[in-house]
What we know:
This protein is of the alpha+beta class. The chain has helices at 40-51, 82-93, 128-140, 156-162, 200-218, 234-242, 260-271, 301-344, 353-371, 378-388, 416-427; strands at 4-10, 14-23, 26-36, 60-65, 71-77, 104-108, 112-113, 119-127, 147-150, 166-171, 175-182, 185-194, 225-228, 282-283, 291-292, 395-402, 406-413, 432-442, 449-457.
Amino acid sequence: MSATHFAIDLSDRHISWARAQKRGKTPHLVETGDVSFLSKAELSAFVEQELLPKIKSRDRVTFLIKGPPQFYRLLEFPFDNTRKIAAALPLEMAGKLPLPVEQVELAWGQTGSGGPGTYRVPSLAIPLNTLVDLREFLDQISLPAAHLAPSPFALAPWVAREQSSCFLVHTDDKCSSICLLDQGVIIGYRMLGPTEHLTPKDLAAAIARAAAILNREANCSRLPAVVVGEKADRVLIQSLEKLNLKTRPLQIVEEQSLSPARQTVACLALSGLLDSGNQGLSFSGGQQQGLSLQPGTGKSRATLMVAACALILFLAGGLWAYQLKIRQEDVLSRQLTSTYEATFGSAAKPSDVPRQMRLQLRQLQQRAQKIQPEVPTPLALLAEASRALPRTALTDLDSYEYDETEVRLEGQCSDFDVLENIRAQLASLPGVQDAQIADAKRQPGGAGVRFRIKLRFDQGEG
């Protein structure tokens, strides 16, 4: 690992940088800076004329990745060996992602003890097209970021050094996210979505709700929050405190004089110099703390032997997984045929059972529409209800219950005016006779309104 680390954070109209250096075993912040720009041409000129001369040949350069899409999963393995995790991670993540595992870059964070004989491994998948697009953009502005590090995971090492168990919130001008640290291990993560139009009060309410959900999922005691990013100003901190979410300042330098933007990139620079055993972020390619998108040079024979062993282990695991899937497919095929014969009779056994079942299902759906044409299907109604929710207000739906006569929706919104707007929008949906607010209560501390809405269907003829 290089003894100096140069970190860069870029937003729509702002670029920040920081250099950290190791003195002995302790990282120290050497310098920070930030500047605003109006166009890509202006940014490119600044990078070439001002920023590049600041980057020394010995610096390890890292660029902070912010915002979706990135997919988090908390896995458990019977080992915490780096090579074994790298080999097993693609097999374990394959069935847990909305994309094929070949189309993502996998990473994992600091492991921690789970149940008896198991280790918790916080894992992350980033689509390759996202990384390639970012790499091309960095090339266009002549920024030599050799490594890419996703937020907030790449910020966790330095935060955990100060506060090993806490909520880590990263919020900037585009989106926000929150993760739960337990003894330095990331055991929970939630994206808060686009937050650029939210007021500090609404953003604080979204953070407090996400923290409460993570707390319940992990069954943790009440934890403080460390908030970083461009929107981590005094107004947001005070709003969080009013919602009974205690905050802790991030200790970067003793005088605490850094702006929120500089504080974030300084945290990234310092995190990159901590030892790999101290909450380092590892990618499946083997790098620590960031993903290298440039071809490597001069690999040693020992490194190649390790890579060969890992490849053999991966292929062996892949063959075993393939054989297991073949057996599972055979069992499922027999079950599918048995279900078809029990449902539609065994007089004729079609060669393509799934296709025949889809045809039968479509016929039944058409018959149902003739009997009651005005009642939408559950999925169609849920899609219409989602489109009807106001885009400018923060709304969470927690429960969706559907039967032949009505639908019950439960959730939380910011205030009663927004709730009435939601009710009116839902009442105008196709097939809905009326929408009634069955219950509405303001949450303690002014953290929004809990509600339950009932939708009744138009009754078709016959």
